[in-house]
Amino acid sequence: xxxxxxxxxxxxxxxxxxxxxxxxxxxxxxxxxxxxxxxxxxxxxxxxxxxxxxxxxxxxxxxxxxxxxxxxxxxxxxxxxxxxxxxxxxxxxxxxxxxxxxxxxxxxxxxxxxxxxxxxxxxxxxxxxxxxxxxxxxxxxxxxxxxxxxxxxxxxxxxxxxxxxxxxxxxxxxxxxxxxxxxxxxxxxxxxxxxxxxxxxxxxxxxxxxxxxxxxxxxxxxxxxxxxxxxxxxxxxxxxxxxxxxxxxxxxxxxxxxxxxxxxxxxxxxxxxxxxxxxxxxxxxxxxxxxxxxxxxxxxxxxxxxxxxxxxxxxxxxxxxxxxxxxxxxxxxxxxxxxxxxxxxxxxxxxxxxxxxxxxxxxxxxxxxxxxxxxxxxxxxxxxxxxxxxxxxxxxxxxxxxxxxxxxxxxxxxxxxxxxxxxxxxxxxxxxxxxxxxxxxxxxxxxxxxxxxxxxxxxxxxxxxxxxxxxxxxxxxxxxxxxxxxxxxxxx
Length: 492
What we know:
It contains 4 helices and 32 strands. The protein is mainly beta. The longest helix has 8 residues.
């Protein structure tokens, strides 16, 4: 067991509470943060590299046929093993955006290709569900079960905003537990069904969910109704019978009192390590636990924790993710220390034996991060970036050239969505509605490359067609707005 301090190389601001770590095609990915201006990757997804005692990030691109994947925090993330010719993939449901909007969408993330220089390109598709569809939420879990030769996705828990009919000015941003229903997804047909069981009478979020064959175990979690983290454990058995599934639930005596814990698998068997989380609002959970799933059920064993540093012991909050089999990435706030320029200290914790250690560049996946609801919202990067140099779009085998540099970030006072881009600008932040079908939560913008600084202009004000806007987003030339060229778009 080792606890290693990491130095983030110009990327500390991109790791915030609520982020997710997941492993695809042997590469560790950071998901859920803002995009990367002035680069070919404004997606908010980054590859993570541990090099000696340094933590580095590099851009991950998406295929041209991918849908937009918002920067979601605390979503439900579920890994799908390869089956029936389908590649390994991840399901991502719900989550909060940096603007505190809550999603109800379901996405599937797969590997699209590997370039000749081994750079990873992802493909993201939104999956439509029909039937009894779960509402927007975050802090919930998804797992896969197998029964009678069939597979299904199980979603449970989470929290959301108070229903619209009950919200008042004072309680507009109040959160409530989602109804304790179990949702089953048939991924082949896109059907969703909701199930209510008497044993699951209270809502819970930021719990752990582990599955083996036809059983799912729900461990711990936080309940807003009672503001508690009871020591609870449920075993949900699902039989995927012809016609309709049969669900049964049993409350077990042994359990863990925790929320927002991190979990990692330690090998091909169903053996896991649970680390971190909270026992109460003011007390972190410093213990480590081994969880084993076998034919006899679930078993817990105490595991000696790392030799925590004073910064970890005395911090009020912490967060992190699963960094591969037997590995964790952990972050604690610097608590306003003037001698520390970064917002967080970062650590890599490894429970691997010497024989089982992986190569430094091979890492893993994760579940949800933390219920740190009061984190400062970040600006997400949903706008389209133009004015990129050709060499910024070309693949390069030089890894260092792709590492994140905070100096690449735009001045938000100049690139915010709601700037007045021109005298005739009609975009109003209070009344804005999507103008293009490709727009989600913010209007599309184009960057005028005139001069050293340049400036942003709303594509709607430039009277660009959506077809032209999409074409420009895939180009590599510089563009001028109406004030700086004879036509809305002009190459150098």
